[in-house]
Amino acid sequence: MAGFLARRFVYFAVLIALATSVAYVLAATQLNPRSNFAGRNPPPAPEVVDAKLDAVNMNNHRPLILRVGHWANGVVHGDLGRTIDGGSVNDELGRRMWVSLRLLLVGSTIGTLVGVALGAYGAVKQYRLADHVLTVAAFVLLSVPIVVLAVMVKNGGIYANQATGNADHPLVYTTGEITPGLPSWSWAGITDRVAHLVLPSLVLVLAGFAFFSRYQRNAMLDVLGSDFLRTAQAKGLRRTRALVKHGLRTALIPVSTFFAYQTALLFVGQIFVESQFGWHGLGEWFVQSITKNDVNAVAGVTLFVAVLVLIAGVLSDLAYVALDPRVRVR
């Protein structure tokens, strides 16, 4: 196992180095940080612009190889550079990472668990009323773009607050991560953060249910008629236990792999949820960085997501081994 993990980490580390290098080169050649100084009145002197861009390693008048080398040297030493505004990429990445993580831990995890459970249940009850209801609900949610779903949930929260008629203590919060003025990690602050999580997490739960329920249903249907299930029941195992112990376990193998990678990519894929509910996470920052031609920020987020994909790959391999005893690692 140790040798297997070591080889996987080396393999993924090489892929990370290649992916982030290509991402930095693309950002450095396609984005134009110098345009941020255009249109100012009075226009800054070219020497001033060059000096400011040199300070953040984004001067397109310098050879690309030198900029790549400077950035790579900083990454090796744990420094992702400065943003176009002069701030630390490390600090901003660290702050926004936890914002996105709070959404993911609740919304994506619950959505996946609910989707897997209901998808498996729908497969067992194939073509019955429960299966039809779940199928219609999933397809309706899948047909609604995530940004529209976020708007609908937010409007529903606003309507619920208006119905209660209590502006000082709303039933649900529709914007922000915490009420301004509350200490972040006091009991009041923690409960307030949880209350602010309800609506954005609900969007992710609904989206996760819609996708994973269909995926899990199809995977479960593939194993319901398998010989090993009939053999288990022929040996005296109750049908429910056979379905959970053998059928669901086998059907979870492809879902576990997809979930690991999907969670990693959601860090920058929930931009619409963050923007609708005023959560300033990685997805929002990534889009803002592209808009501002912030090369270092774009490269930093890409590196972070690449590392998450590495971890997701290792975890999916371990989950595959745990769920399928026929698989052995060497």
Provide an overview of this structure:
This protein has 330 residues and is mainly α. The chain has 2 domains: 1-84 and 292-330, no CATH class; 92-281, MetI-like fold (Orthogonal Bundle), CATH 1.10.3720. It contains 12 helices and no strands. Helix 8 packs antiparallel against helix 9.
Question: From the alpha-carbon coordinates, what is the Rg to the nearest angstrom?
Answer: 24 Å
Derived from helix and strand composition plus strand pairing, the structural class reads: mainly alpha
- Name the CATH class of the largest domain: Mainly Alpha
Count, helices: 12
Q: Under the CATH scheme, which architecture of the largest domain would be assigned?
A: Orthogonal Bundle
> How many beta-strand segments?
0
Poorly predicted segments: none
Helix proportion range: over 70%
Based on Cα principal axes, name the global outline: globular
Please summarize what this structure is.
The chain has helices spanning 2-30, 46-55, 64-76, 89-124, 129-143, 146-164, 187-224, 227-234, 239-269, 271-277, 282-291, 295-323. With 330 residues, it is mainly alpha-helical. The longest helix has 38 residues, at 187-224.
